[in-house]
Write the structure tokens for this entry.
Amino acid sequence: MKHDTLVLGAGMVGVGCALHLQARGQSVALVDRRAPGLETSHGNAGLIQREAIAPYALPRGLGFLLSGATNRRVDVRYHALDAARMLGPLWDYHRNSAPDRYKQISREYETLIALSLETHQQLMNEAGVNDLVAGQGYLMLCRTERELQRIFAVADERARDGVNHTKLTGAEVARDEPALVGSFAGAVRWTDPLAISSPSDLVQAYARLFEQRGGVVHLGDATTLRTTDAGGWQVDTADGQTLEASQVVVALGPWTTQLTARFGYTAPVIPKRGYHMHYARLPDRPLHSTIIDTENGYVIAPMKDGLRLTTGAELANVDAPRTPHQLDAAEKIARQNFPLGERVDPEPWMGTRPCMPDMKPVFGPVPGALGLWCAFGHGHQGFTLGPVTGELLAAMMTGAAPRVDVRPFSPARFG
Ligand SMILES: Cc1cc2nc3c(=O)[nH]c(=O)nc-3n(C[C@H](O)[C@H](O)[C@H](O)COP(=O)(O)OP(=O)(O)OC[C@H]3O[C@@H](n4cnc5c(N)ncnc54)[C@H](O)[C@@H]3O)c2cc1C
């Protein structure tokens, strides 16, 4: 079957690309080894993070390094051998987190985040799924006065760039979330973001919209990708078809470079794995907002399947065995403050944030491979940015002018 473009990977990023290419008149086939939205785009904290105009930097303080050495932090852990193999990219990440570089990177990152709400809102309206919005805004909860003042300063800085927030004292936190136990210094409520009640339902709703508009979703293994003698691209589907197109987008999240390497392109992905678990709600102690425990780096999000606890980052290879110690540690702390009932899921879920050393996503033409494009490396905000990347990449692929300068996100900066 011939199409204009094949999109490999049906996470938030791949589905965003497929929809926007289709909107530009292309015939598109979307291929994934599973149904849409069942990997990292399923298990995240469900926030469309309009406030995240600066990406997630590597803390540079000595305290962080020293406390990290014992590998017992709640927010960041690592598999020692895997982390050792990442030392080069981690060193670049460290350098890019220095104030001057970070400022420039954030300026570039902000151009994408600024489009996140409107691109999602448009698709949600078209797909008729505004009911998946569980709430607007979320809380960054601080236990200590020191952390609170740090977060207040971040909020003031972001306010200058048009990001809205409200500052809460400890008493105001207790008023808004009476189910919390314990005393907190205060919080910032970011008021622009959207909290989604089931991230994979949103990806699947977008995938259905793509199908309703004539797109086709296939099960298939992207590693069957090959070039044709005529200079096109082919991939096999699970039901025995061969799909062909002149262009292909590789949007396989943390698995992207495993495939592009076969066509001569690679890039230094830092896999930050994360876990989640759902807990039963306690009927007499409802939680109203998604809350980040900033000092411990985990999130509690009220979702369709219960209260979802998502963990911070585990530096480990994407396919290395699961070690959900961070989840256990975060749960132990969270149980002291949050209204968590029994565990709901039989096993912890695990997924991988594909992070780049310069904290920016990678999308555009793959150097040296005609017709091969990629879209990956969205790190901590791929759920937020999928539709933005889709819009910008579709413009590039169809010869139109993207709405923002896409050069900072070019695949050519690596490889
Ligand atoms: C704990 C946690 C919390 C997070 N919270 C947030 C949040 O609140 N907000 C936010 O914006 N982001 C969040 N993120 C990040 C976000 O989830 C990711 O950046 C985003 O999901 C990446 O989307 P993707 O489409 O690039 O990758 P994925 O969703 O991983 O999709 C890749 C797809 O490729 C497919 N695939 C892989 N290999 C093959 C193959 N060989 N053949 C066919 N298909 C293949 C997979 O099946 C998958 O569907 C969080 C991440 C984690 C881990």
